[in-house]
């Protein structure tokens, strides 16, 4: 039963989504929007962050007694402490997700070094050497595997407790590092900061909201400049550095005549191998033998972004499109690794011939087919998965197939290396464009969808508002598909940009919005900010840059937001996290952090307002740098 029925047009800005929402309804399939409606309104106490279940004297919930006095939990914790503890654990959850993903890449590199992963290799030796040298590893006259062996050790040791500072602190401008040292938030060990957050938020430990919030910053920094950065760099070393190339987006990338397999999740270790197996002539023959014209791999969410940026495979959809992709009736298999995979996909897949296949032992779904993916047997297991999809193709009910759109072209696969390449090997032309004002600033729009908003309305709306103002926009994560569908990821998209950005795009042949990869790849963007700050001899907080996540939903998105702010990059978000029950914590997030880190959060649900406020700050920053507004 729907309490507040909305039209498909109100739920998503996209035609392909709207058509599939109608089809789902007709076929009696429940979607994220139905469940969102059932769950609304959410619990007020939880929304404010004023509930605590951290011990068994509770659960407790805090409200204001008459006279405005704040109640306390059974242990005596007040609302500020409870909100900060909840937020701290939220950030720890997100940091753990990105960082554990990073660790999985180290394990694959280790297996390559030890000769246990015959299906993987080191694709980019040059990057291996470059990154290793940055981490202080000797690279002269040494074999690739010896260097890689040391890199494995260096990365693993960033997860532990033996270091005073993470390896990639070498990429952080000196001024920023000094600030972190003084505040005691310089990240020491990735697992350590996460574990310490769990410790601090146990009953009777860190009972000062500001102190907990500062550790939230340290935890998030260990993600951005640690776990995520390791994830990105090792993925580049193993699978190659992204370079610009053409691809396509929307549900139209699903092909009626082919065996369609959608990879979903985050870790390229699985999806890269599924792609390799799908390209195997023997598997293609098998697909043809059951009447298909071929095997088509499409991406969902961030593992899709990983494959898109390195291999140019098309994106079927972002977070809120994942159920709807199955509703096309033409998906033979969803191959999932971990994170952001709605449990409901098992039920939606069961309404069709679609096989829902999980691959990570740490992300199993009741009702799914589980293939315990192991780097040592990866290609064979990937072929086994393809085989299941081929068998499913024979069960497809073609009378239920509806592919609702023609795909839209995009250019994707930017990276710092690719950007520098496009600029002729130096940042100078880019800095010149910023100095003269043809690029007035840079905003990274990252992250998710959330049914609290009309799907992708904010992601696309904000991007368009910004490029109009000659602000270059970078996209990562689920924003990518939105940007692509809106025509913003092709050079012709520059028609929607202001005159300055238009000129730059024409000169370089680039789109006004650059796809920078998956969400762990936001580490590329903070690294780039560090490079620019160093080139200008300033701190990151002096730059005319922003992060934004208008439709964010996940713990990981908040971890990204916090590491950006702590790195000196202000962040716009469309909805607040569950902190508004504490005035102290909310004020800190919106204003106080400005004095601590030189950046803070802006909560603004209206993209036009958000763009105007962001522009205002970009002007201020330009003025302070002595640049024309
Ligand atoms: Fe998840 Fe990364 Fe958000 Fe998309 S953008 S909904 S976190 S898949 Ni990262
Ligand atoms: Fe309640 Fe304190 Fe226990 Fe939380 S830690 S549940 S506030 S008694």
SSE map:
Blueprint: H1 8-11, H2 15-26, H3 32-39, H4 44-48, E1 51-52, E2 60-61, H5 79-113, H6 125-134, H7 144-158, H8 174-183, H9 190-200, H10 209-239, E3 245-249, E4 259-264, H11 268-278, H12 281-289, E5 295-300, H13 301-311, E6 315-317, H14 322-327, E7 333-336, H15 345-350, E8 355-358, E9 369-370, H16 378-393, E10 408-412, H17 416-422, H18 428-436, E11 441-446, H19 457-468, E12 471-476, H20 479-485, H21 499-508, E13 513-515, H22 522-536, E14 545-549, H23 555-566, E15 571-573, H24 583-597, E16 601-603, H25 607-624
Parallel strand pairs: 4-5, 4-7, 5-6, 7-8, 8-9, 11-12, 11-14, 12-13, 14-15, 15-16
Antiparallel strand pairs: 1-2, 3-10
The chain binds FE(4)-NI(1)-S(4) cluster and iron/sulfur cluster (SF4).
